[in-house]
Amino acid sequence: MAEIITMPRLSDTMEEGVIAAWHAKVGDNVGSGDLLAEIESDKATLDFDSPADGVLLYVGVKEGEGIPVGSLLAIVGDKGEDVSEAIANFATESAPQEEAAPVAEAPAAPPVQEAAPVVTPAAPVSAPAPVVADSAPVVTPDGRIKASPLAKAMARDKGIDLTLVQGSGDHGRIVKRDIESFKMPEAAPVSAPAATEDAPVFIPSVVGQESFEQVRISQMRKTIAKRLSESKFTAPHFYLTMEINMGKAVEARKALNELSPVKISFNDMILKAAAVCLKKHPKVNSAWMEDHIRVNHHVHVGMAVAVDEGLLVPVVRFADQKGLSAIAAETKSLAGKARNKELQPDEWAGNTFTISNLGMYGIEEFTAIINPPDGCIMAIGGIIDKPIVVDGEIVPGKMMKVTMSCDHRVVDGATGSEFLVSLKQMLEDPMRMLL
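^ thats the sequence. predicted structure below, dont judge the formating
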């Protein structure tokens, strides 16, 4: 009997999934637990196993395309089984009914070819002949270049035009080794026009072309855009900035790293200090829930991690109860998983407060948008060497600015200020966080 498989919800905020790769094709035998597809959610690309034994009779979406959660993804059943009635009965907004067929796919708007720029030749000067690869990549009937998700990501990072790459994978698909071995062909030089005696002023003729590319919006980027827009335009933000002398923290970190089995970063120290202060100031560790305010008694600190498609926020749970070495090991592990899209659902959910650090980029001060459902997010700037006044004397100082964005429905100015005063005291005397 045919088994209907729908697009699963792989995260609490996921509304649509994209098939990064199918690992079986229509007509293949699949067993329960066999890898059926790789699905790109709004936070990671996860393996999806077949929930049933049988033959793959139908797939409802192509590689690289997305469908809403709960829509018809695939059908597994007995060989030769007619699934036309099951397809017809499973009508959804994103997958209209089609004629019954052994292989059927929901119609979709033709996707934009990811790497091919749209070019408008400059006029009236003729542009040089374009460089053409010895052999063209395989292009699907709908105009999409066949390439693995990893190959596409590597091509984007290296600035390689996929239209110039010949695939060596199955059916000409571009894979990782093709990007690694690709060499950009050299374009023919363009000779400049010769100068003449009659021309007192030489104006060089510029030969160029206008170009751009349209990049498909990933599920992660869509979700980031939606959630942050909702946060910015729903939660009334206000901002509190404080400067902290990190001189003793610098000395403490140096001493701790002589003993710690894992290298402790300044971000780890700030995260630990914030977690301890959140326990002391629970109103900052709260969330607006429309008809009530949820005051969290546990402390789960999210840390923003930059990835190619935006930001992910893995969560350090019960951060106030963990030592600096444990926090350091956990943050390094979570950051690596985030960058490799290997985070599991329980590693990105449940944050009660968030930290975003751009200090390593030389940013001195910035503001961040609150990460729902948190009531606050704290933006960390870099540690700057600057002169400061201590006991009436000018001395060198190592100063760091932090800016906390607060949801005014949850946190008032005095409440947020008291939290930052506690944080300043703790970081300017790091022994306090060990008590």
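The two ends are 63 Å apart (CA to CA).
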